[in-house]
Write a structure and sequence with these properties.
Length: about 200
Amino acid sequence: MLYQSPFPSVEIPDLPLPNFLFDHATAYADKPALVDGPTGRSLSYGLLTQAIRLVGASLAQRGFKKGDVFAIYMPNVPEYAIAFHAVAALGGINTTINPLYTAHELAHQLTDSGASHLLTIPHFLPAAQAAAQEAGGIKEIFVLGEAEGATPFASLLRSDGKLPAVQIDPYEDLVVLPYSSGTTGFPKGVMLTHHNLVSN
């Protein structure tokens, strides 16, 4: 028997994730997009999209390009979203890493995903540096705040460049590569496209 919803199908925009965000953010430029619970710090849609463009331009100037993998190893803070969407705007792939991972578990994901850049917080930096050394392939580590041996994330917000235009196929190009829990073996990458995220 065939079951069919009495409601019309949901129309999913045929857009890459950054375009979807930028298009909708314009109408809400002064409204809060992100609020950091512990600190109460708020970021409007206007400031969020401005930060995304600046970080994207800075990463592009550093040689980050479409198809490159950017690892995010930190808790849920506003900079997480800024980095994530900046990478997406460049056609890059975010690999999101469990902040409870050990250095060895982190190294496995860095190697398996082919990550070239890594963002973390000072508290996680020793594990991030050890994992980067074990994995190889990490060109630069960024950190929130200041810490020896890593580039301050804030420096990416001081770009004098422009976010490059990148051709993105929403159905084919990956935007995020999270990893499974690994209950039956090593964690495995789950390939999600721009269309997958816009659908959500």
